[in-house]
Amino acid sequence: MIVPNRFALVETTLREGEQFAQARFGSEQRLAIAELLDAFGVEFIEMTSPAASPQSARDLELIARRSLRARVLTHIRCHPDDARLAVECGAQGVNMLFATSEQLRRASHGRSLDEIIAEAEAVIAYLRSHDVQIRFSCEDSFRTPLPDLLRVYCAIDNLGVQRIGLADTVGIATPREVYEVVHIVRQAVRCDIEFHGHNDSGCATANAFCALEAGATHIDVSVLGIGERNGITPLGGLIARLAVLDANLVARYDLALIPELDHLIADFVGIPIPFNNCITSPTAFTHKAGLHTNAVLRDPQSYEALDPSLFGRRRTVAIAHKLVGWHAIAERARELGIALSENQARRATARIKALADERPLDGEEVDGLLYEYAE
Ligand code: HCA
Ligand code: CU
């Protein structure tokens, strides 16, 4: 299984991300986010429907007319009024959705599959006449019976859309299931395939990766994965997954902007970067246990899947703890310009371990000890 180089990121911090409970972006923030995403190099920026609020419509118009490299999309219901508004605001594409699972059809709109297809036909004809790119997504695809899904996608494909979308709306799909469904749909339609995966059961990044392996061409991501509930596939997480496989897959993006993107969004929505976040967690490139640090100091690849410098980050070796090894201590002494013999480094290490058993230590105290042992 190989991941093709020809895939595109549909960045939806400005749509799905706005559905994160703590998100409330102002116009200037939206513009700053769009510009930074554009500088990073995402191919598509998805924005909240202009039908959501007057400011949503104004900001869509502002950003769509900004001549970004990224194509600006808006996410709308499959409804003529929303489609008209999207065109009026200058959206370069629309990501439409219609719920197709029985659960959502019952709780949401009550339409039959035939009615869904008929309504889509009218909206698609209108959008095509205005030269707008079209993606049609079956909301809740993974709780929609496969025959229903194929029926809708084939009908929509025949209407001449650019993409169909598969959405794991409630975050229940397993990576294997995503692979299978995308693989089957890939054989049934000619158009491109987008995947959108929620993270309720912790599989959003794995599912997005499997979608790519199975032939999806577009993946939805948001910065830090923010979205409804606990969110979707994070931009940085998917980049990390792909970069580990083959850095060429993501070479077209400005990877050093990932820390800035994550910090910007964390700041705007008032959260810290999660401790276990890929790439930008404060400790993502910190090595601690003696066995690790000894090897990392000789060859970083021994315990690093990703080179921190790819993302403008640096590795650190933690030394103020009981798991420290003497190689790490000797290296720290060299950094400080202190001449420590192996014997002195070993004795300093023993002292640090004993002290760390008694109480927490900090770096400054350890540095002080190193000066003492050199004397
Ligand atoms: C929702 C909609 C959506 C849409 C995904 C898509 C989802 O908020 O329920 O258009 O592909 O997760 O289904 O975000
Ligand atoms: Cu979603």
What's the name of the CATH homologous superfamily of the largest domain? Aldolase class I
Please indicate the percent range of residues in DSSP E strands (runs of 2 or more): 5-15%
Radius of gyration: 25 Å
CATH topology of the largest domain: TIM Barrel
Principal-axis shape equals elongated
Integer tally of domains: 2
Strand order of the largest sheet: 1-2-3-4-5-6-7-8
In the CATH scheme, the class of the largest domain would be Alpha Beta
Please outline what is shown here.
By secondary structure, the protein is of the alpha/beta class. Helix content is 45%, strand content 13%. It folds into two domains: 262 residues, Alpha-Beta Barrel (TIM Barrel), CATH 3.20.20; 89 residues, no CATH class.
Question: Can you walk me through this structure?
Answer:
This protein has 375 residues and is an alpha/beta fold. It has 2 domains: 8-269, TIM Barrel (Alpha-Beta Barrel); 286-374, no CATH class. It is built from 14 helices and 10 strands. Strands 1-2-3-4-5-6-7-8 form an 8-stranded parallel barrel, surrounded by 8 helices. Strands 9-10 form a two-stranded parallel sheet. Helix 1 runs antiparallel to helix 10 and helix 3 packs parallel to helix 5 (113-129). The termini are far apart. The site of 3-hydroxy-3-carboxy-adipic acid has 13 residues, from strand 4, strand 5 and strand 6.
